[in-house]
Amino acid sequence: MSSVTGSTSPPVAEATSRPSGPGPRTAAALVFGSSAAVLVVEVVSLRLLAPYLGLTLETSTMVIGIALTAIAVGSWLGGRLADRVAPPRLLGPALGLSGAVVALTPAVLRTTAEWAPALLLLVAALTILVPGALLSAVTPIVTKMRLTSLAETGTVVGRLSGVSTVGAIVGTVLTGFVLVSRLPVSAILIGLGTALLVASALVQWRKRGWSGVPALSLAVVAGGLGTLVAPGGCDVETRYHCARVVTDPDRDSGRTLVLDGLRHSYVDLDDPTVLEFTYVRAIASVADAAFPESEPLTAHHIGGGGLTLPRYLAATRPGTRSLVSEIDGGVVRIDRDLLGLRPRSGIEVRTEDGRLGLRRLDTDSRDLVVGDAFAGVSVPWHLTTAEAMADVRRVLGDDGLYIANLIDHGDLAFARAQAATLTDTFGHVALLGEPADIGRAPTAGPVGGNLVLVASDRAVDLSAVQQALDARQTGWTHVTGDDLTSWIGDAPRLTDDHAPVDQLLQPYGASGSR
Length: 514
Known about the structure:
The chain is an alpha/beta fold. It has helices at 24-53, 57-84, 87-115, 120-136, 138-146, 153-182, 185-207, 213-229, 278-290, 308-316, 329-337, 354-359, 386-395, 413-423, 462-471, 481-488, 501-504; strands at residues 236-237, 242-247, 254-259, 262-268, 298-302, 321-326, 347-351, 366-371, 396-409, 428-433, 448-456, 477-480. The strands form two sheets. The protein has an eight-stranded mixed beta sheet, sandwiched between helices. Strands 1-2-3-4 form a four-stranded antiparallel beta sheet, with helices on one face. The radius of gyration is 29 Å and the shape is elongated.
């Protein structure tokens, strides 16, 4: 028997090489930082656009959609370019260009909103899309630079994808819980633009290549200077609002609180019984007519603003205790620092959501609940539903009263839906407003603006309310009963399960005013 011996060649090891790009920690830092920056831009853009578009479902959906588009486009293009161009040549420009755009965003958006509002949506989309796409391209570029062999593809891609996701989470949480509450949005974006430019400079310094950093640094400087001169500046940027306090030129002690460009409250520092806004005079008229003169009340206010009504009740009904739920701590600070709110005034302000504030109140503990948390461009929908109204009814005593200020225009679809919801909750509901808006002027269609709803389980003397409205020269009238039912029509009832408030609301009239 013969035997055949053969030799086998040892397996050839796959060639490996050390990546020529950043090390693992640097790569992780670049991916983490760029992903975090995308989410910072997204969250801050919502705040930057709120004064002009409102903090509505549509605005939030638009910004999220644009940001996701930017992430998709940037990831796709970044990967394609990384396969065709040396990745180190792409990294620096992506960081530098995105930093320049981010730094210029506050000045560009505010200037566009004031001088070319028709272009606002286009410009807003570009200020999110361009830096978002450039920053999202960083992950595939860095991934390509870290890959050395197919054997480690899964490890590298998985690790950097995870780091990218963590960066996005940190960017979201850091912005929402820390940055926006402590810094103006312009400072956040200019600071982020500067950080991105520094990162670009460091990448270029290591590569000794692209020389665009000095030129782009001018964009950061321009962004800072532009923010100083751009229209739409604020005295204070709170967590939710761009706020200003304007002195009344005709009354030295008069102050107007302006939030996101809209006049929200008027306060006379010397005389709290001065009520400038018509809807405030209407609410005061209802309170005066519904309760005995000078009788102290236990009141709860959903929404504070300049605290005009709590001050009025304290002045006209000594001993009144008003608890105010105001979600924006920055507005509360303005009340104390600029609008003369003093301790021991009978007014307690809690920085809290109005719905949560209601839940904390005892049953049958209030004589009066005032709802004044609705702005012209945004409405906290969860304060409009049947469930929220049931909570209002719970905290009111048997003779308690709920008075709500609404703002709507066009066919007043939101106001009708809110009235319909209240009629299902309370035994007596009345609507106050301009005759044309509430169906009392058959020859004129609705114009819109402020309306006031009054709801209770006891009858209110509406003739006394009308006399008070006339005495204050509001020009308003009221409807109730069958007339109110006819005005409501087939408007939907709002519930926690279905409250399309953003779709029903038309925040502006034909002139675009509040």
